[in-house]
Design brief:
There is one protein chain. The chain has an 8-stranded parallel barrel, surrounded by 8 helices. By secondary structure, the chain is α/β, with parallel strands linked by helices. Helix content is 48%, strand content 12%. α6 packs parallel to α8. It folds into 2 domains: 229 residues, TIM Barrel; 46 residues, no CATH class. It starts with a helix and ends in a 7-residue tail after the last helix. It is built from 13 helices and 8 strands. This is 2-Methylisocitrate lyase, PEP mutase family. Keywords: Lyase, Membrane, Transmembrane, Transmembrane helix. Pfam families: PEP_mutase.
Length: 291
Protein backbone atom coordinates (compact mmCIF):
# COMPACT_ATOMS: atom_id res chain seq x y z
CA UNK A 1 0.00 0.00 0.00
CA UNK A 2 1.25 3.49 -0.85
CA UNK A 3 2.24 5.66 2.10
CA UNK A 4 0.09 8.81 2.46
CA UNK A 5 3.02 10.60 4.13
CA UNK A 6 4.84 11.47 0.90
CA UNK A 7 1.81 13.11 -0.69
CA UNK A 8 1.20 14.92 2.60
CA UNK A 9 4.79 16.21 2.61
CA UNK A 10 4.29 17.75 -0.82
CA UNK A 11 0.95 19.27 0.16
CA UNK A 12 2.56 20.78 3.28
CA UNK A 13 5.45 22.24 1.30
CA UNK A 14 8.11 20.14 3.07
CA UNK A 15 11.16 19.60 0.87
CA UNK A 16 11.94 15.91 0.33
CA UNK A 17 15.49 14.52 0.08
CA UNK A 18 15.55 10.92 -1.15
CA UNK A 19 18.73 8.82 -1.24
CA UNK A 20 19.13 6.20 -3.94
CA UNK A 21 18.75 2.58 -2.86
CA UNK A 22 19.86 -0.29 -5.08
CA UNK A 23 19.89 -3.47 -2.95
CA UNK A 24 18.46 -4.54 0.38
CA UNK A 25 21.52 -3.54 2.41
CA UNK A 26 21.38 0.01 1.05
CA UNK A 27 17.60 0.00 1.56
CA UNK A 28 17.84 -1.11 5.20
CA UNK A 29 20.57 1.42 6.00
CA UNK A 30 18.66 4.30 4.39
CA UNK A 31 15.37 3.20 5.94
CA UNK A 32 16.74 3.66 9.43
CA UNK A 33 17.95 7.23 8.91
CA UNK A 34 14.71 9.19 8.97
CA UNK A 35 14.32 10.22 5.33
CA UNK A 36 10.87 11.18 4.07
CA UNK A 37 11.29 8.99 0.98
CA UNK A 38 13.72 6.58 -0.64
CA UNK A 39 14.40 6.36 -4.38
CA UNK A 40 14.83 2.98 -6.06
CA UNK A 41 17.37 3.87 -8.73
CA UNK A 42 17.16 2.07 -12.05
CA UNK A 43 20.89 2.42 -12.74
CA UNK A 44 21.90 1.01 -9.36
CA UNK A 45 19.24 -1.70 -9.20
CA UNK A 46 20.05 -2.99 -12.68
CA UNK A 47 23.78 -2.85 -11.94
CA UNK A 48 23.49 -4.71 -8.63
CA UNK A 49 20.94 -7.25 -9.87
CA UNK A 50 22.11 -7.97 -13.42
CA UNK A 51 25.57 -6.41 -13.61
CA UNK A 52 24.78 -4.61 -16.86
CA UNK A 53 24.26 -1.03 -18.04
CA UNK A 54 20.95 0.74 -17.45
CA UNK A 55 20.17 0.71 -21.17
CA UNK A 56 16.75 -0.89 -21.48
CA UNK A 57 18.02 -4.42 -20.82
CA UNK A 58 16.13 -4.97 -17.56
CA UNK A 59 12.51 -6.05 -17.94
CA UNK A 60 9.39 -5.39 -15.90
CA UNK A 61 9.79 -8.84 -14.37
CA UNK A 62 13.38 -8.08 -13.35
CA UNK A 63 12.38 -4.84 -11.68
CA UNK A 64 9.00 -5.41 -10.03
CA UNK A 65 10.40 -8.09 -7.74
CA UNK A 66 13.29 -5.89 -6.69
CA UNK A 67 11.22 -2.78 -5.99
CA UNK A 68 8.69 -4.92 -4.16
CA UNK A 69 11.44 -6.19 -1.87
CA UNK A 70 12.47 -2.58 -1.19
CA UNK A 71 8.91 -1.56 -0.37
CA UNK A 72 8.22 -4.56 1.86
CA UNK A 73 11.54 -4.21 3.65
CA UNK A 74 11.27 -0.49 4.40
CA UNK A 75 8.98 1.62 6.54
CA UNK A 76 9.92 4.69 4.46
CA UNK A 77 7.94 5.38 1.26
CA UNK A 78 9.73 4.19 -1.88
CA UNK A 79 9.59 5.96 -5.24
CA UNK A 80 10.69 3.54 -7.94
CA UNK A 81 12.07 3.96 -11.44
CA UNK A 82 9.96 2.15 -14.05
CA UNK A 83 11.73 3.38 -17.20
CA UNK A 84 9.28 3.78 -20.10
CA UNK A 85 6.66 1.55 -18.51
CA UNK A 86 8.30 -1.36 -20.38
CA UNK A 87 6.33 -0.92 -23.60
CA UNK A 88 3.14 0.59 -24.92
CA UNK A 89 -0.03 1.71 -23.20
CA UNK A 90 -1.12 -1.76 -22.08
CA UNK A 91 2.37 -2.35 -20.67
CA UNK A 92 2.18 0.94 -18.75
CA UNK A 93 -1.15 -0.08 -17.25
CA UNK A 94 0.27 -3.44 -16.20
CA UNK A 95 3.43 -1.82 -14.79
CA UNK A 96 1.56 0.72 -12.67
CA UNK A 97 -0.76 -1.93 -11.28
CA UNK A 98 2.18 -4.24 -10.56
CA UNK A 99 4.29 -1.60 -8.88
CA UNK A 100 1.34 -0.46 -6.77
CA UNK A 101 0.61 -4.05 -5.73
CA UNK A 102 4.30 -4.42 -4.85
CA UNK A 103 3.91 -1.60 -2.34
CA UNK A 104 5.75 1.37 -3.83
CA UNK A 105 4.46 4.88 -3.16
CA UNK A 106 5.59 6.49 -6.40
CA UNK A 107 6.34 5.27 -9.91
CA UNK A 108 8.60 7.15 -12.32
CA UNK A 109 7.78 6.94 -16.03
CA UNK A 110 9.84 8.60 -18.76
CA UNK A 111 9.32 9.71 -22.35
CA UNK A 112 12.34 8.07 -23.94
CA UNK A 113 12.21 5.81 -26.96
CA UNK A 114 12.78 2.14 -26.32
CA UNK A 115 15.31 0.87 -25.51
CA UNK A 116 15.85 3.67 -23.02
CA UNK A 117 19.23 4.95 -21.82
CA UNK A 118 20.33 6.18 -18.42
CA UNK A 119 19.82 9.91 -17.82
CA UNK A 120 22.93 12.10 -17.94
CA UNK A 121 24.37 9.80 -20.64
CA UNK A 122 24.46 10.57 -24.39
CA UNK A 123 22.20 9.24 -27.12
CA UNK A 124 18.81 9.61 -25.44
CA UNK A 125 15.86 10.15 -27.78
CA UNK A 126 12.26 10.89 -26.83
CA UNK A 127 8.89 9.83 -28.14
CA UNK A 128 6.35 12.44 -29.29
CA UNK A 129 4.91 14.33 -26.33
CA UNK A 130 1.38 13.25 -27.28
CA UNK A 131 2.34 9.58 -26.83
CA UNK A 132 3.69 10.27 -23.35
CA UNK A 133 0.54 12.20 -22.45
CA UNK A 134 -1.45 9.05 -23.20
CA UNK A 135 0.92 6.98 -21.06
CA UNK A 136 0.37 9.32 -18.12
CA UNK A 137 -3.40 9.26 -18.56
CA UNK A 138 -3.33 5.45 -18.62
CA UNK A 139 -1.09 5.40 -15.53
CA UNK A 140 -3.42 7.73 -13.64
CA UNK A 141 -6.41 5.57 -14.51
CA UNK A 142 -4.59 2.32 -13.61
CA UNK A 143 -3.70 3.21 -10.02
CA UNK A 144 -6.16 2.30 -7.30
CA UNK A 145 -4.75 4.26 -4.36
CA UNK A 146 -4.80 8.08 -4.62
CA UNK A 147 -1.63 8.12 -2.48
CA UNK A 148 0.23 6.32 -5.28
CA UNK A 149 2.13 9.12 -7.04
CA UNK A 150 3.00 9.28 -10.73
CA UNK A 151 6.34 10.91 -11.49
CA UNK A 152 6.57 11.97 -15.14
CA UNK A 153 10.08 12.42 -16.50
CA UNK A 154 11.11 14.06 -19.75
CA UNK A 155 14.55 13.62 -21.31
CA UNK A 156 13.87 16.26 -23.97
CA UNK A 157 16.30 18.88 -22.62
CA UNK A 158 19.45 17.20 -23.95
CA UNK A 159 18.28 16.71 -27.55
CA UNK A 160 15.41 19.16 -28.07
CA UNK A 161 16.29 22.01 -25.71
CA UNK A 162 14.97 23.55 -22.52
CA UNK A 163 11.87 25.17 -24.03
CA UNK A 164 10.58 21.84 -25.33
CA UNK A 165 11.40 20.13 -22.04
CA UNK A 166 9.36 22.72 -20.13
CA UNK A 167 6.48 22.41 -22.61
CA UNK A 168 6.44 18.67 -22.07
CA UNK A 169 6.56 19.10 -18.31
CA UNK A 170 3.47 21.30 -18.49
CA UNK A 171 1.66 18.81 -20.74
CA UNK A 172 2.47 15.93 -18.42
CA UNK A 173 1.26 17.89 -15.41
CA UNK A 174 -2.02 18.59 -17.18
CA UNK A 175 -2.32 14.89 -18.11
CA UNK A 176 -2.40 13.86 -14.45
CA UNK A 177 1.20 13.44 -13.28
CA UNK A 178 1.67 14.26 -9.60
CA UNK A 179 5.38 15.11 -9.81
CA UNK A 180 7.32 16.49 -12.80
CA UNK A 181 10.91 15.44 -13.45
CA UNK A 182 12.75 17.40 -16.15
CA UNK A 183 15.97 15.50 -16.60
CA UNK A 184 19.41 17.04 -17.11
CA UNK A 185 19.04 20.83 -16.92
CA UNK A 186 22.59 22.09 -17.30
CA UNK A 187 22.72 25.30 -15.26
CA UNK A 188 21.13 26.79 -12.18
CA UNK A 189 19.48 29.37 -14.45
CA UNK A 190 17.79 26.57 -16.37
CA UNK A 191 16.59 25.07 -13.12
CA UNK A 192 15.16 28.43 -12.08
CA UNK A 193 13.29 28.68 -15.39
CA UNK A 194 11.82 25.23 -14.81
CA UNK A 195 10.78 26.20 -11.30
CA UNK A 196 8.93 29.26 -12.57
CA UNK A 197 7.15 27.40 -15.37
CA UNK A 198 5.88 24.23 -13.67
CA UNK A 199 3.15 24.40 -11.03
CA UNK A 200 3.22 20.76 -9.89
CA UNK A 201 5.85 19.44 -7.42
CA UNK A 202 9.21 19.31 -9.18
CA UNK A 203 11.89 16.67 -8.79
CA UNK A 204 15.62 17.45 -9.14
CA UNK A 205 18.02 14.65 -10.07
CA UNK A 206 21.31 15.23 -8.24
CA UNK A 207 23.91 13.00 -9.89
CA UNK A 208 27.54 13.33 -8.84
CA UNK A 209 29.48 13.94 -12.06
CA UNK A 210 26.28 14.42 -14.08
CA UNK A 211 25.03 17.27 -16.27
CA UNK A 212 23.03 19.11 -13.59
CA UNK A 213 24.64 21.26 -10.89
CA UNK A 214 24.17 19.84 -7.39
CA UNK A 215 22.46 22.52 -5.33
CA UNK A 216 21.73 22.52 -1.58
CA UNK A 217 18.23 21.47 -0.57
CA UNK A 218 17.46 24.98 0.66
CA UNK A 219 18.37 26.48 -2.70
CA UNK A 220 16.36 23.90 -4.61
CA UNK A 221 13.32 24.74 -2.52
CA UNK A 222 13.86 28.47 -3.11
CA UNK A 223 13.78 28.05 -6.91
CA UNK A 224 10.65 25.92 -6.93
CA UNK A 225 11.64 22.28 -6.42
CA UNK A 226 9.85 19.95 -4.00
CA UNK A 227 12.11 16.90 -4.05
CA UNK A 228 15.72 15.94 -4.75
CA UNK A 229 16.85 12.40 -5.48
CA UNK A 230 20.44 11.25 -5.12
CA UNK A 231 20.35 8.00 -7.10
CA UNK A 232 24.09 7.42 -7.42
CA UNK A 233 25.50 8.61 -4.09
CA UNK A 234 25.11 5.20 -2.43
CA UNK A 235 26.45 2.88 -5.10
CA UNK A 236 29.33 5.22 -5.93
CA UNK A 237 30.37 5.17 -2.27
CA UNK A 238 29.99 1.39 -2.06
CA UNK A 239 32.05 0.79 -5.21
CA UNK A 240 34.84 3.03 -3.87
CA UNK A 241 34.81 1.27 -0.49
CA UNK A 242 34.90 -2.17 -2.07
CA UNK A 243 37.78 -1.21 -4.32
CA UNK A 244 39.67 0.07 -1.30
CA UNK A 245 39.17 -2.95 0.95
CA UNK A 246 39.54 -5.54 -1.81
CA UNK A 247 42.75 -3.81 -2.88
CA UNK A 248 44.04 -3.99 0.69
CA UNK A 249 43.16 -7.70 0.88
CA UNK A 250 44.93 -8.40 -2.42
CA UNK A 251 48.05 -6.52 -1.33
CA UNK A 252 48.27 -7.62 2.31
CA UNK A 253 46.75 -11.07 2.17
CA UNK A 254 44.42 -10.46 5.13
CA UNK A 255 42.02 -7.89 6.56
CA UNK A 256 43.69 -7.39 9.94
CA UNK A 257 45.09 -3.92 9.29
CA UNK A 258 41.94 -2.42 7.81
CA UNK A 259 40.85 0.73 9.67
CA UNK A 260 37.77 0.26 11.82
CA UNK A 261 36.10 3.02 9.80
CA UNK A 262 36.24 0.78 6.72
CA UNK A 263 33.95 -1.80 8.34
CA UNK A 264 30.28 -1.54 9.26
CA UNK A 265 30.89 -4.27 11.81
CA UNK A 266 29.64 -7.84 11.78
CA UNK A 267 27.45 -7.30 14.82
CA UNK A 268 25.79 -4.26 13.30
CA UNK A 269 25.12 -5.97 9.98
CA UNK A 270 23.55 -8.93 11.79
CA UNK A 271 21.25 -6.55 13.62
CA UNK A 272 20.45 -4.61 10.44
CA UNK A 273 19.40 -7.75 8.59
CA UNK A 274 17.19 -9.05 11.40
CA UNK A 275 19.25 -11.81 13.00
CA UNK A 276 18.16 -10.94 16.59
CA UNK A 277 14.59 -11.85 15.64
CA UNK A 278 15.82 -15.12 14.12
CA UNK A 279 17.79 -15.96 17.27
CA UNK A 280 14.80 -15.18 19.48
CA UNK A 281 12.62 -17.42 17.32
CA UNK A 282 15.19 -20.22 17.63
CA UNK A 283 15.25 -19.84 21.43
CA UNK A 284 11.47 -19.91 21.64
CA UNK A 285 11.07 -23.02 19.52
CA UNK A 286 14.25 -24.86 20.45
CA UNK A 287 13.70 -28.60 20.85
CA UNK A 288 15.33 -30.46 23.73
CA UNK A 289 18.20 -32.66 22.62
CA UNK A 290 17.09 -36.08 21.55
CA UNK A 291 13.54 -35.00 20.78
Amino acid sequence: MAHPSLKAAFEAGRFVVAPGIFDMISARVADGMGFTSLYATGFGTVASHLGVADAGIATYTDMVGRVGAFARGCRTPVVADADTGYGGLLNVRHTVMGYEAAGVTGIQLEDQEMPKKCGHTPGRRVIPAEEMVLKIKVAAEARRDPNMLIVARTDARTTLGLEEAIRRGQLYADAGADVIFIESPETEAEMQAIGKAIRKPLLANMVEGGRTPILPARRLAEIGYAMAIYPAVGFLAVAAALERVYGHLKEQGDSNALPASDSYGFGRICELMGFPEVWEFDRKWAQPEGK
